[in-house]
User: Fold these one by one.
Assistant:
Number 1:
Amino acid sequence: MLGNLSGLLDKGAQLAQTKGFDPAVLVGAHLAPDMFALGRQVQVACELARNSVARLTGQAPAPAQEPGQTVEELKGTIAATIDYLHGIAAATFEGADTRDIEIQLPNDRVARMTGARYLRDWALPHFYFHVVTAYDILRHNGVEIGKPNYMAHIADAIQPRGQ
Amino acid sequence: MLGNLSGLLDKGAQLAQTKGFDPAVLVGAHLAPDMFALGRQVQVACELARNSVARLTGQAPAPAQEPGQTVEELKGTIAATIDYLHGIAAATFEGADTRDIEIQLPNDRVARMTGARYLRDWALPHFYFHVVTAYDILRHNGVEIGKPNYMAHIADAIQPRGQ
């Protein structure tokens, strides 16, 4: 999904070039004035991917970073996140489903759940929230993207019928 | 997530009542003129939930339906989908991870994958796409919702710190 997100940003940069506007305008675009802009959506998607894996494998979550200001910076953050994820050996997840996960929340609250619930009920819905909202911001701003871009990871499973 | 979606629609109906507009305007709202409107986003989220379970348990997927025209109709579709999902016994999923899944696509194409890949790479990204886009349409139209509404299913795991 992070790879697809990088491809969506490319399509945004393409539109900016065709229409002759600064692609950083897209990075600062919102669907509502009190929602995160595209740049922060991408940044948080990357943080969630990284932190979910950290928590499930018993490491401390990484500190939050300021989001990139340009499409290139955002793509760099995505690439670094994918590299980090590829570096985690599958065996590191052993026992993750029963691990106790604790998430510090604002207003002196804490969320506690098992690793299995954390993956299904916290990490995935949050991660997809930011990936899809990034898509929606781009789409709302006229970037020519569709489900094949959002679902680029599935291309190898699609064939002509009868084969 | 479908329960949360129903709650998001309630918040939309609430805004319509406060501001004195027809809630069906929200049902027909788009983020882009060639994207599905809210009603279709909700309908497709329900179809995906139902059909993913059908495919993973070896049943024929249900035929597509016309989306509801009102918030009440959409909430009815969500409630019926949740009922359907609750009616599927866990044991029905036995062997689903290695089941061969085939999805007919437009332009004489077909996608083929195992059940495990289908769940992770097809069902979940598609399902979340439509749930989050429904959220984004409502949010873009000024409905007062936030992450606690989108993540309502996690409320029972949140406590004051120190308990």
Number 2:
Amino acid sequence: MSKLRLKISMSLDGFVAGPDQSVSNPLGIGGERLHEWVVPLAAWRSMHGLEGGEVNESAKVVEESQANIGATVMGRNMFGGHPGPWDAKKPWTGWWGADPPFHHPVFVLTHHARPPLELEGGNSFTFVTEGIQTALELARHAAGEKDVSLAGGAKAAQQYLSAGLVDEMEINLVPTLLGSGERLLEGLGDDLHGLELVRTVATPRVTHLKYARRGKASSDKL
Amino acid sequence: MSKLRLKISMSLDGFVAGPDQSVSNPLGIGGERLHEWVVPLAAWRSMHGLEGGEVNESAKVVEESQANIGATVMGRNMFGGHPGPWDAKKPWTGWWGADPPFHHPVFVLTHHARPPLELEGGNSFTFVTEGIQTALELARHAAGEKDVSLAGGAKAAQQYLSAGLVDEMEINLVPTLLGSGERLLEGLGDDLHGLELVRTVATPRVTHLKYARRGKASSDKL
């Protein structure tokens, strides 16, 4: 069965978003510092239609995280817009403009039903109100032989981690403090559901910590 | 001037001690998992008067952290015993028995005055009620040309980090969750006071993240 793979950037003090997230500041105060390591990379630039960029150890990790993904699951907060029911007159279509960088089906966890959204470049957004299990089943079906990416945010990731449904977790640990905001590893107790550290890639700007169940990740080397 | 060097083991979710710390369980529930990586090492065993043990990448980090240390500062909670005034009839003498592993002067932050304690092997404990600055000055004086180790616990580390007095910070990041307990990086806001990630040593059991001010740590390589 295809794997559910979480990738997320986290500060040294455990935050995956800064405080005071809003439509105008989706990452919260200081949150952009979590992504400074990825923006210069060729792998990130090409995903956003830009040329050039750096090729380094982090780039290989990003390329690996993008490879073999057939569908994405994300939380409502990551898809964005004001909380609560969708604005029927001016429906929010995500942060990414007319041609988002996914190019495959995306399933958005929400409490508020809404028809699917089709954008350019093979990007479709399906809004799932039946919970994380249903969203994962739909995403796995859409992904076929490929894996499913769990894109965040914190609350969606926590729900899948709590349920033991995450097969791989790549934490990009950024050597900075945010001080407050949303923590990734909260409300999970002390249970990683068998996820073990299977690979570390160290760079000055970020430490990539890959967790997996060893039996399912025999190709990984430490 | 001699450096103040913090070394501490932290879980992936940011805890340096588990919940429900007590005299019978000083590391809190699950807290011993933070130290499983260090106990098999020859460097740790020799520090505790034991022979044999492993020599690996972590051992080099431990040896480095023990080298050139002339004095230690620690919080009352790390020295241990029941909180509040000292028991004059049966004074607490620390967790470490008659011959603690420091072999140099130790300065304990406390709100409760107490005469110095002399144990075997060059171990002396001085109880400082005048705050972190005074404790650091006393420790620096005692250390002479050598550095001062900041041994923890969380609250003592936070006070020195908040004041910008920590020159080096080695976080031994353990790939496990504790779920609750005492966090290291709390109440510091988003300010590392110039500490930057200068070296990462990756092993399957622990990731050693060394932070320093670059100008003061030019011999470190990434």
Number 3:
Amino acid sequence: MKIAVLGTGVVGNAIGTKLIQLNHQVMMGSRTANNEKASAWVKQNGGNASQGTFADATKFGEIIFNCTNGAGTPAALNQAGAENLKGKILIDISNALDFSKGMPPTLFVCNTDSLGEQIQRAFPEAKVVKTLNTINCNIMVNPSLVPGDHDVFVSGNDADAKAKVTDILKNWFGWKTVIDLGDITSARTVEMWVILWVRLMGVVGHPNFNLHITKA
Amino acid sequence: MKIAVLGTGVVGNAIGTKLIQLNHQVMMGSRTANNEKASAWVKQNGGNASQGTFADATKFGEIIFNCTNGAGTPAALNQAGAENLKGKILIDISNALDFSKGMPPTLFVCNTDSLGEQIQRAFPEAKVVKTLNTINCNIMVNPSLVPGDHDVFVSGNDADAKAKVTDILKNWFGWKTVIDLGDITSARTVEMWVILWVRLMGVVGHPNFNLHITKA
């Protein structure tokens, strides 16, 4: 499958590399067509890896992974273009973390709104599915790094898109439990969780942990 | 031990009843000395149970459990009185849930502040420990209702107070894992978790669930 990965940071690298390992054709998108981090990633990942602008990659991809930093997401998706996103599944992994006032971070949108909702409103013809923002990027594509049962979530308005993303999470990335939280307004719940995640990282001492919902 | 339970709702009832079962003397506090719900609770719980105003109960208690609704907490604690809270452990279980605009609820304070922090600022001589707000009240005092490993958190500025509350959680209420998140600013992380908790309750279909942090 042709897949776009928007963003050249650690999340984009982890997702893109996993997709290449799964034999997909992956274009990494960034602000410029010749981004150096994207070039380095392409060099490491062989013939199925390519790079381009956010618009190039989004046009190329049948599915789009938004791996941009939350603060840069609106600009990145505006460059990606509504026409290129139209009708496609947009998997949103971004977080609204604001480190500008030091640690601990706060969120620049939360409670009554979320990045996931903002993206869905800005691109009503894209099928936005929020997921994977609740764990470290290494665990996103290799959940077995954390032992035992643990969970990932999906939020979105389009049931078919959520079903497809759930299939990707389970059968491509290896997740056993995918919890459907409801429509895209539930993106705010998993974006708010990240504030607890950051504190827990300090307590645990590393990012290789996750939550498991256990029930009676 | 003499203990104050502030609040006559389901949380105050669950905590108060458990403490009575553990042979403590418990005064349930409310706005008026003759609150009907408190009277009913006293009647059910025998000679070690009593009732009074927020001030009466707080004066009586060596440890104070704040089980009031978050929106009513500031007024309740003002009635309790700074002099009566001085030097005492104040276990804060309140949540900032705002249901005034319907479901799903939002928080009336979050992200850059929390109820726990507001209480600590308002009563600097109380030793505020935020805990137990992350689960349903039945699980608070009977964690074995949920099978398997699952966790509760403490947040607060006073290490000795957190150690005492951790002892209460483990040896009185039966918690196996108590995670210390840090100072009282970490109260915002567990208060924000509740927004995810509410959605999960809809997915799970009942409130008898909790989270477990699993790590590499």
Number 4:
Amino acid sequence: MKLLQLVIFAAATTSCTLAVAFATHATAEKPASPIYGVTIPDGYRQWQLIAPAQEAAPLNELRAVLGNAIAIKAYREGTLPFPDGTVLAKLAWKHVQSPEFKPASVPGAATTVQFMVKDSKKYAATGGWGFGRFIDGKPADEAQHRTCYACHQALVKNHDLVFTRYAK
Amino acid sequence: MKLLQLVIFAAATTSCTLAVAFATHATAEKPASPIYGVTIPDGYRQWQLIAPAQEAAPLNELRAVLGNAIAIKAYREGTLPFPDGTVLAKLAWKHVQSPEFKPASVPGAATTVQFMVKDSKKYAATGGWGFGRFIDGKPADEAQHRTCYACHQALVKNHDLVFTRYAK
């Protein structure tokens, strides 16, 4: 019985250690943005649309801003500031002329995917928002991430640092 | 007892008649497109994004095409033709310069909301698709609806009459 208990204890311990190691490994594998440590949220492409946008030259991009459930609820109810847990995703593509309908521009190659994550404690120094800009799944460099808060703070302080409005 | 039975029968009959009248009335109230009888699906604004688009002058519109669950599954799996039950929603807004960020155009006033509904039997004469174009919740006239199938048939016959591709 002593031996059996030992074996069970050892098995349980090993299993637990492996689970912890695996979880740590999985977290470490997910690329995080400099400064903020924002990672790409699972399933963000399935989130609801807040609004599309178009960016003029030199970027020439088509964009769509999506939001997680907390974000969508806040938009619908006009809640400002956005509650903790809000995540906004901005998807951007080069806009290219539709080969089938000349007056239309449609998404070409993807350029960036950007996220704003609301956590009023963790990101208290930047208005409660953490930022992440990703290119091909990899975070952009620290210099690029230094520009996020400054620009949002300068231009949309009155809308909790968020540019995008809900398109009705 | 006879009288009571009669009262119960009369009450049940009246209630049933009212229920049928109400249901008929509710159906009649939902505006349907000419030719196709397409109505605005409940909850379409919560559907997932297929792709944004931009329309040049004279329309100057920003657009977003959303799809119901059947549509999204078909896009993900590359299913062509789209299965019966597919519904696509195209939301369009005038594009206006962002007052907060000059290089960006954002949605202004809503212009049209348009739907394509796949029902290979009901719409056999138009490639399996029914069309509906709505302005302020009201269907556009028959002349406008006459243009839908002809244009889709001429330009995107090879993609089951659907212009929009899934933006990745």
